[in-house]
């Protein structure tokens, strides 16, 4: 494989020295970019983009071509590919988000679920990873990802998005045996899926625990973090002669940073509700931190964006172990020029913290 020309993202995740704080954006390939909207129109729909390796590569590269400051690429895919490969029948309703043709509601439903083979059942994702990696040609590292077992379970039990997770939480408390079986199957599936991405060329992986923060403290430990810990313990951690860092991101997980830091990952993603300096103090040297600007700051003018970037950098302070990111995904209405101002500010303002 081609040597990396820019490895500061990987170095920061491993708390090694860097010249400036590396930066990327969750959902950096997406609807805020006109070139993405053109590609999606050409493909026909969202799933056609995801399931065609050439289209997935094209949209993965678009933000890198627009913003030379980006220090990583992230695979263009969806977190719900695993439930789809389990036979749940993923589709997207306009204005409604993801939906499933089948829902999981009983122990028998869960027992019937297969564990997908990443190469046979999700081969289009593996092909996309290898295609993107070739196209990058060492430009920046490629991030692979998956949803967490708890987050995937919520979609499978609810049949789509939910505001209150009524069915999922009812199963958790009424039938914990069934929920644990579902989460265990998902943990096995995610482990195999991420290892497949690593073997195909992903150089770091992130687990998105989007809905873990909706659990109580006790339920988070038992039904979310325990399964992410299991995944981390089963991942390939070195490939192609270098370490493969693992990032855990629980939206709303700021109360449990110490526990997450002990789960075995290399880095924690923070949402915007945490102060990154306080988070650094709490986790010490155990892990790197990724984050954590409020995505809505990108609606403000470039001067205000630059000011907020400076505040977060100052809060983290000197030294490595910080990957700058938004506290969640960039939203579709953001002006691409504002995203560019954000990325430039990170590199320009962070050099002083790495002397």
CATH-defined architecture: Alpha-Beta Barrel
Report the CATH topology name. TIM Barrel
Strand order of the largest sheet: 1-4-5-8-9-10-11
Number of domains: 1
What is the overall shape?
Answer: globular
Structural class: alpha/beta
Give the fraction of residues assigned to helices: 40-55%
What value does the Rg take, in angstroms? Answer: 19 Å
Counted by DSSP, the helix tally is: 15
**For this structure, what is the CATH class?**
Alpha Beta
Strand content: 5-15%
Tally of DSSP β-strands:
11
**Euclidean distance between termini CA atoms:** 31 Å
Largest sheet: 7 strands, parallel
What does this structure look like?
By secondary structure, this protein is of the alpha/beta class. It has a single domain (8-354), classed as TIM Barrel (Alpha-Beta Barrel), CATH 3.20.20.210. 47% of the residues lie in helices and 11% in strands. It contains 15 helices and eleven strands. The protein has a seven-stranded parallel sheet with strand order 1-4-5-8-9-10-11. Helix 12 links the parallel strand 8 (246-250) and strand 9 (267-269). Helix 8 (149-158) crosses helix 10 (176-200) and helix 10 (176-200) runs parallel beside helix 11 (217-233). The longest helix has 25 residues, at 176-200. The radius of gyration is 19 Å and the shape is globular. The mean pLDDT is 96.
Keywords:
single chain; 355 residues; alpha/beta; TIM Barrel; 7-stranded parallel sheet; two-stranded antiparallel sheet; 15 helices; 11 strands; 47% helix; globular; EC 4.1.1.37; porphyrin biosynthesis; decarboxylase; Uroporphyrinogen decarboxylase
């Amino acid at each position: 494989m081609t040597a990396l020309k820019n490895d500061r993202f990987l170095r920061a995740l491993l708390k090694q020295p860097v010249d400036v704080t590396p930066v990327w954006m969750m959902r950096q390939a997406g609807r805020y970019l006109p070139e993405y909207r053109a590609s999606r129109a050409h493909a026909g729909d969202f799933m056609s983009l995801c399931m065609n390796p050439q289209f997935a590569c094209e949209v993965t590269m678009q933000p890198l071509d627009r913003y030379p400051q980006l220090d990583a690429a992230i695979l263009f895919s969806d977190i719900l590919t695993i439930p789809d490969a389990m036979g749940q029948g993923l589709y997207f309703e306009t204005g409604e988000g993801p939906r499933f043709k089948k829902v999981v509601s009983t122990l028998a439903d869960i027992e019937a679920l297969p564990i997908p083979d990443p190469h046979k059942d999700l081969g289009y994702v593996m092909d996309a990873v290898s295609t993107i990696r070739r196209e990058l040609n060492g430009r920046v590292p490629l991030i692979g990802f998956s949803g967490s077992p708890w987050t995937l379970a919520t979609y499978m039990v609810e049949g789509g998005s939910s505001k209150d997770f009524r069915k999922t939480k009812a199963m958790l408390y009424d039938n914990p045996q069934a929920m644990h079986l579902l989460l265990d199957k998902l943990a096995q599936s995610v482990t195999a899926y991420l290892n497949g991405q690593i073997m195909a060329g992903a150089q770091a992986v992130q687990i998105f625990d989007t809905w873990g923060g909706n659990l109580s403290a006790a339920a988070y430990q038992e039904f979310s973090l325990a399964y992410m810990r299991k995944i981390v313990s089963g991942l390939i951690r070195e490939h192609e002669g270098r370490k493969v860092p693992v990032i855990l991101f629980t939206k709303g997980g700021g109360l449990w940073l110490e526990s997450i830091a002990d789960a075995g990952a290399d880095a924690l993603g923070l949402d915007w509700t945490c102060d990154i300096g306080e988070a650094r103090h709490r986790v010490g040297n155990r892990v790197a931190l990724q984050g954590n600007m409020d995505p809505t700051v990108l609606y403000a003018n470039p001067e205000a964006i630059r000011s907020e970037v400076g505040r977060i950098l100052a809060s983290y302070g000197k030294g490595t172990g910080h990957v700058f990111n938004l506290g969640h995904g960039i939203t579709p209405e953001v002006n691409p020029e504002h995203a560019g101002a954000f990325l430039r500010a990170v590199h320009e303002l962070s050099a002083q913290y790495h002397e």
